[in-house]
Design a protein that fits this description.
Shape: globular
Distance between the termini: 33 Å
Structural class: mainly alpha
Strand content: 5-15%
Number of strands: 4
Largest sheet: 2 strands, antiparallel
Number of helices: 7
Length: 262
């Protein structure tokens, strides 16, 4: 494909980078184009993140408010308030500038509680009203509150992957002015990431659809949860997930990374 495009750029062949665009508009003589400023790419990705939208399920008579809120993934008056000092917490999400200046080992930075652990994933009304039961220090652990905690986590994960898909298109521009071997390396990496994100997004859409229907109907049948309450603030807390493909006897449980399997 690349050879055909270089011999005759007017032939409408798809670009070798698998972006879906035509080669003559995309990677034809790419190495002659001016280099991209990486800080400008980062800023464009940040602007895309800040656009936001409301993740709350739409139902008759329950319209969104105009503004989008910076929704907390960890409640401000709960977990964040417990670990904050003078209204601030430490963040380990570095900027590109900090990564470069500290040679890949940037120190944590202080940020205000209002900016910590937030994403523009709900309108002002639904962020305030829908999650009122799980704000504050004394939250009752029951199915209703557990559903809200889980729903907000699912909404955040879907938002993050939706943003990731949009920023892949932005990052594809980063090979401008680079030699062909580097163009191929960058585009292959981004294509692989895009395939994985799309598979994850497919599953998340199905999960969120189930949560949406439960949020609207209040149906908690078949919904189970497990909670632990500690009597003090723990020195370190982490969370994660483990997706085993096989059990201890070698029996296949699921097939990850394949579009034809859930």
């Amino acid at each position: 494909i690349r050879a055909v495009a270089e011999m005759n750029p007017y032939v409408p062949v798809p670009c070798w980078c698998r972006s879906g665009k035509k080669s003559k508009f995309w990677h034809y003589q790419r190495e002659r184009q001016p280099l991209i400023n990486i800080y400008e790419v980062e800023e464009e990705m940040r602007r895309e993140f800040n656009r936001g939208y409301c993740s709350y399920p739409k139902s008759a008579g329950d319209e969104c408010s105009p503004g989008i809120s910076n929704a907390h993934t960890v409640q401000r008056r709960g977990g964040l308030g417990a670990i904050g000092e003078a209204g601030h917490v430490l963040s380990v999400k570095p900027s590109m500038k900090a990564m470069i200046e500290h040679e890949g080992k940037p120190p944590p930075k202080r940020i205000g509680l209002g900016r910590a652990s937030v994403f523009p994933g709900f309108c002002n009304k639904h962020d305030k009203v829908a999650f009122q039961l799980i704000e504050g220090e004394n939250v009752a652990f029951e199915k209703t509150t557990a559903l809200l905690f889980a729903y907000r986590a699912i909404a955040y994960e879907r938002f993050a992957k939706h943003w990731q898909l949009k920023t892949i298109a932005i990052q594809r521009e980063m090979d401008c002015g680079q030699p062909l071997w580097k163009q191929e390396m960058i585009q292959e990496y981004l294509y692989t990431i895009e395939c994985g994100v799309k598979i994850g997004m497919r599953d998340l859409e199905a999960w969120k659809s189930d949560y949406d229907s439960r949020i609207i109907s209040g149906d908690l049948d078949g919904f189970f949860f497990y909670s632990v309450r500690f009597d003090r603030v723990l020195p370190i807390v982490g969370c994660g997930a483990f997706y085993p493909e096989f059990d201890l006897q070698g029996k296949a449980l699921q097939r990850l990374g394949r579009p034809s399997f859930e």
